[in-house]
């Protein structure tokens, strides 16, 4: 098994959630690491993948909102500083599509989730290094992970939607 590094300058962990039932708040986690081992990244079924995300690195471009998300109402980042994912099964759906199932842990709650993953291809960067690109997406119910804070709106509905769409965009290279 070969180890693979994430090119942090060409990768991102993004999320989005409905706001006030009419729009979406989008954000990223600025600090994360991964352990990726695979015999061949052109066939992800051979891979072992794990991520560790710094919960306090959440960034929605609003300092007040980010501070609320880091607090006990949401991530409680002081008590639960990391969000983790560890793959448990990877199946090939087509030549360039995979289902990566694994254990996602947020606030000490672990649930099995599946990321639909697309292999975007491989190439050689300007420094002669081989690189591979992937994009993965899943949707989780935040309340299942203990992220239950909300506020009712006078017009009906709630301030924060339950479903969180998570997108992971990766460019990786050999370690």
Automatic annotation (TrEMBL):
**Organism source for this protein?**
Lysinibacillus zambalensis
Which protein, by its recorded name, is this? YceI family protein
Leader sequence residues: none
According to the UniProt entry, the coiled-coil residues are none
Domain named Lipid/polyisoprenoid-binding YceI-like: residues: 3-173
Protein family: Belongs to the UPF0312 family.
Pfam families attached to this UniProt entry = YceI
């Amino acid at each position: 098994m070969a180890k693979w590094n994430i090119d942090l300058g060409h990768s991102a962990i993004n999320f989005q959630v409905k706001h006030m039932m009419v729009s979406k708040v989008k954000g990223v986690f600025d600090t994360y690491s991964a352990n990726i081992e695979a015999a061949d990244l052109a066939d992800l079924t051979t891979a072992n993948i794990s991520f560790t995300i710094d919960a306090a690195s959440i960034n929605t471009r609003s300092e007040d909102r980010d501070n609320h998300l880091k607090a006990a109402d949401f991530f409680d980042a002081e008590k639960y500083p990391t969000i983790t994912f560890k793959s448990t099964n990877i199946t090939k759906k087509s030549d360039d599509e995979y289902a990566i199932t694994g254990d996602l842990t947020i606030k000490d709650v672990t649930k099995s989730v599946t990321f639909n993953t697309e292999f975007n291809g491989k190439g050689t960067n300007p420094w002669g290094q081989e690189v591979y690109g992937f994009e993965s997406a899943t949707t989780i119910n935040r309340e299942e992970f203990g992220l239950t804070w909300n506020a009712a709106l006078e017009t009906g509905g709630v301030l924060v939607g339950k479903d969180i769409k998570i997108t992971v965009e990766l460019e990786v290279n050999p370690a």
